[in-house]
Amino acid sequence: MVALHRGANFMLENPLQSLIYFHPRLRKFLKKRGHTEQMTWLGMYGAKTWKPVKLVSSSKEVQRLYRKLNKKKFGKSGSTRQYRSASGKLCFQGVPGKLCETEVYPPEFGRAVLQLQ
Question: Domain of life, per the record (predicted)?
Answer without folding.
Answer: Eukaryota
